[in-house]
Write a structure and sequence with these properties.
- It is a single chain.
- The chain has helices at residues 2-6, 25-30, 77-81, 94-99, and strands at residues 58-63, 89-92, 107-112, 115-123, 131-135, 179-184.
- It contains four helices and six strands; from the N terminus they run ααβαβαββββ.
- The protein folds into two domains: 1-42, no CATH class; 51-184, Barwin-like endoglucanases.
- The protein has 189 residues and is of the alpha/beta class.
- The chain has a six-stranded mixed β-barrel with strand order 1-5-2-4-3-6.
- The radius of gyration is 21 Å and the shape is elongated.
């Protein structure tokens, strides 16, 4: 950016005006309610500051796995060896685990109004209280394959995530905007 700073007319940026743009006329012309033409705070559909936390108080993060490539190789020995009792591990803070009477290795149900899945709890203070983390890519394994909303037994977080894009402009996935609750799973997994 040094050339632009020294001579913005001779070295314009690759924007419509050639300058740094805080407001985009092009984006304004789209008239998208969910994508203003300037930097703005837009409340996420689900977040720890919403009233929905009264029912679903945990923010679920779903990162890329280190034991497979997305869902590829989920059946490999490397991926299988990272599971606990055949379930994908979910990490949660000790405060959240204690409030639910959970210990590392417990089989737990993660759920919200969209669905539910089974995983094995891993207790760690590597996360903030109120945040839980699971890797993506566990193969979908429904309890009853032909029943919509059935329990997913393997740890696939897709069953609880919103099926929406980030905005009309971007259409990126909204996977990190998920609130859930976790309880011990009482039945045999």
């Amino acid at each position: 950016m040094a050339e632009f700073r020294n001579d913005p007319n001779a070295y314009p940026l690759k924007t419509p005006s050639g300058k740094i743009e805080i407001f985009s006329e092009q984006i304004a012309a789209f008239h998208y309610e969910d994508c203003p033409p300037h930097p703005s705070w837009i409340e996420p559909a689900e977040w720890l500051g919403s009233r929905l936390t009264e029912r679903f108080p945990l923010h679920l993060l779903s990162n890329q796995p280190s034991t497979r490539l997305h869902s590829q190789l989920d059946d490999s020995s490397v991926s299988k060896n990272a599971k606990i009792a055949g379930r994908e591990p979910i990490t949660m803070h000790p405060v959240d685990a204690a409030a639910r009477g959970l210990a590392s290795g417990d089989i737990v149900k993660v759920f919200n109004d969209r669905g539910a899945f089974l995983v094995a709890a891993v207790i760690s203070d590597d996360l903030l209280p109120g945040v839980v983390q699971i890797s993506t890519g566990a193969w979908y394994d429904p309890l009853e394959g032909s029943v919509p909303g059935t329990l997913e037994k393997h740890g696939n977080p897709n069953v609880v995530t919103l099926d929406t894009g980030s905005s009309r402009l971007a259409q990126a996935p909204a996977a990190q905007t998920v609130l859930v609750e976790i309880t011990r799973y009482a039945n045999p997994p």
